[in-house]
Amino acid sequence: MPQPVDLSRQFLSDTGGWKEMKEARAIHAAGRVSEAGYRDGVLQALVREGNKSLKVRLEIRSRTDVENHCPCFRARRDGIICAHALAAGLEVLEPTAPRGEASDRLGAVGRTPDPVAKPGPDWPALTEMAEEAAIPARLFLVIAPNLAAAWEKGRLSVGVEIGWDGERRLLKSVPAATTLFLDTGDAFLYRALQEISPAEVPGMLLLTTEAFSRLLAVVPGHPGITLGKTEPLHISPRPLRPALRRQKGLRFRVEWERGQVPLPAASGGWVLVEKNRLHPVGHGLGPEMQALLGEGLSLAPADFPAAFRVWQDHFDTSGIHLTRPQAEVRLELEGSLNHLDADLSFVYGDEVVAAAEERVPVREKGEVLELSDLATENAAIAEIEAAGFVRRGSGGRFVLKDKAAILRFLAHGYPAFQRRWKTRTGERFDHALGQVEPVTTTMHFRPGGEDWFAMEIDFGTPSGESISRQEIQRLLQMGQAGKPLAGGKIAVLDTALADSLGEILHDCDPEQTQPGTYRIDQTQAGYLRETVSDLGFAADGSPPWQNAGEAIEFYELSPELKATLRPYQRVGVEWMQDLASQGMGGILADDMGLGKTLQTLAFLYSVGGSALVVCPSSLVHNWVAEAEKFVPELKAVAIEGPDREKVLAEHGDADILVTSYALLRRDEASYRDRTFDVVILDEAQQIKNPEAQISRIAHRLEAPYRFALTGTPIENSAEDLWSIARFALPGYLGSRATFT
User: Fold this and answer.
1) Minimal CA–CA distance to 56: which of 81, 84, 35, 79?
2) Cβ(661)–Cβ(67) under 8 Å?
3) Which of 31, 49, 27 is nearest to 198 (CA)?
4) What are the C-alpha distances in Å from 647 to residues 410, 474, 632, 641, 657?
5) If the chain, 740 residues long, is cut into consecutive pieces of 10 residues, what is the mean pLDDT of each piece?
């Protein structure tokens, strides 16, 4: 089951967009959020809206799979991640909590919040609607002109003034019986001031840098903030992305341009530009990272890769030169049929790194930082351990003592490693290797009827020795790995492959016409082809996949698109094309960040025709933007907002239509009679429950080729996979009852 996403300001901003985030900051700072909580991927809170409270609920399944259940009009109509939901997240991150004195209000970090205090009786009433008795007014904040010096000292004085009829006065001088009519921006600021100083109407405030930073987040673009009485202070909502530089070793520091003054704070810093403009910087980084804005931050090598991924969202990191070389795996072996020793290491150019338990993920190469290929390293260690080897010490040495496991490794494991890794063996190991022969499996195929084919299975050795099915069954029942041959060698059965063969036959659900001969449905041709290739079984005769499906002529990818695709992504596109050529769909289950969207767009480019993409609300515009970036030749249109039917009618000829799960649920009738060439479900775990309404609607979408994209095809149980496969490959996994 996937781990819940960690909430951060950056995540909330990415999910909802800056406009909704701006409003969310104001809602949060005004103290309109209560009872906020985040548990098991569900964010909940009560948000005051006028004279009523909205019960907000946000399901966060992954960083890109977010569903909003806020009852507000725009969330229901347009399927957006609204400001109410984002404000709930801000409340979880930074609980609004009154303190005893106004000067410390909002300045506490990491303590249990007190209940939100109601404004005292001295506060004038507030209205955002024009009323006869209400006085139209504007708020002003007067900040000491030496802002940078005051920030460094940790105390900032703020004058709070209000103006009407051309005059300005301290807010505390306004009689309590007054009703003030303020516009939306001033109303947000007014409520924030009530949160800071609930008991006393402020004239002057003395705030910590943390409290002042949070206050600034409420008032981006406010025209009434000045340094001293006359110098306007512009608060920009646009984060600044300064250049991050490596100083020495793994010490990093922001390089500020002339005229930029950093103002760090635990919840996110600010940059004073040209003495009168503030930009947020590094919001969401966390207190420990704020040193980057000042004297600099040193990291341990183990912490660098994760930290750098975060920094890329906040800073210009182009000046930090990185290389990501691919590791060459080296395996040295020595031993006998009773004992094997292995030395595993990884080669980067002229440097050899032992496969130790603790390995450095980054190395200095002059001006360049070289990142270790941890994926290859960890996979190699996992493979050697899966073969039965255990560590000897903390370095890269491993040992294998189990005799049956040694036989299996010599016959089946080592040849597989030899094909992919650089291996070196000793004389004793070579002698032991010559004493074994692997038992191989051969599948013989012959044509059958229109919708079935016949398959026979034989077992033997490379030297020509045939082994009966009965002998294979006896070895499995006795738990034996090998069988002596006439020439003195040992025929070794890979029991894992034998078990896999049994699972393959079970999955294909064949009709056994006689011992060792099976009649199999033609729909299993693609599955058998992949398993034969993956498991290394031999196939002869007339393999059924040679004639499966109708030939499709794919359009050649543009040179720009080819150059953009990484090698593994090209493999993914070819895999999708291969399935389509067989009249099938599939589930693309790459991890997040590996480019499922790009691979899918390349596939859509190659197949042509019309496509429907269904994704979470937060990704609709991302799909359109990615299409415009990578496949500008294709017309991509977002189907959202109140005029969806009109947009769909006007752009029915679009190459790619993009809508959300929330809107598909509401607009089912609009898609019921449409047939697309391709339907794509992004974050397809949305349909993991086959009983859910959205799952039933998705299963009814018409298209010859249907693909599901998800990094988590199984979240809770195998039944999740069945529901997703029912969309992509109808009938492939059988009925729900037989599968589960």
Assistant:
1) 84
2) yes
3) 31
4) 64, 67, 20, 9, 10
5) 73 79 82 86 85 83 80 75 91 64 32 56 88 91 92 92 92 93 87 89 91 85 90 90 92 93 86 91 78 90 89 90 94 96 95 92 91 93 94 93 93 92 96 92 83 85 85 82 85 81 80 82 77 80 65 84 91 91 86 89 92 90 92 92 87 91 89 90 88 88 91 78 87 73
Block residue for tokens 């801000």: 90
Rg of the chain on CA atoms, in Å: 33
Alpha helices, DSSP H only, in 450-566?
A: 469-478, 495-508, 525-535, 559-564
Lookup: tokens for 519? 């009649």
In sequence order, what E strands does 545-621 have? 586-588, 611-615
Coil, helix or strand at residue 337: coil
CB 160 within 8 A of CB 206: no
Predicted TM-score (pTM) of the model is 0.55
Neighbours of 323 (CB within 10 A): 11
Which residues have a Cβ under 8 Å from the Cβ of 464 and sit 6 or more positions away?
A: none
Look-up of token digits 């500008």: 632
Task: Yes or no: say if 589 and 720 are a contact pair by the CB < 8 Å rule.
Answer: no
Distance CA 229, CA 406 (A): 84
Q: What tokens appear for 575 in the block?
A: 């895999």
Per-position DSSP letters for 343-356, written without gaps between them: EEEEEETTEEEE--
Q: From the options 3.40.50.720, 3.40.30.10, 3.30.420.40, 3.40.50.10810, give the CATH code of 559-739.
A: 3.40.50.10810
Nearest to 312 by CA among 244, 379, 389: 244
Q: How far apart are the first and last CA of the chain?
A: 18
Q: Which two tokens stand for residue 87?
A: 């404000």
- What span, in angstroms and rounded, lies between the C-alpha atoms of 353 and 421? 15
- Pairing type for strands 517-521 and 452-460 reads antiparallel
DSSP single-letter state for residue 221: T
Neighbours of 352 (CB within 10 A): 12
Structural domain boundaries in the chain = 9-93, 102-235, 243-320, 328-421, 437-547, 559-739
Q: Cα angle at 327 between 324 and 330, to 5 degrees?
A: 170
Phi, psi of 269 (to 5 degrees): -90, 180
734 within 8 A of 740, measured Cβ to Cβ: no
Q: How much is the pLDDT for 546?
A: 65
Side chain identity at residue 48, one-letter code: R
Residue at token pair 């940078």 = 148
Strand ordering across the sheet containing 135-136:
125-127, 179-181, 135-136
Task: Report residue 428: phi and psi, to 5°.
Answer: -65, -40
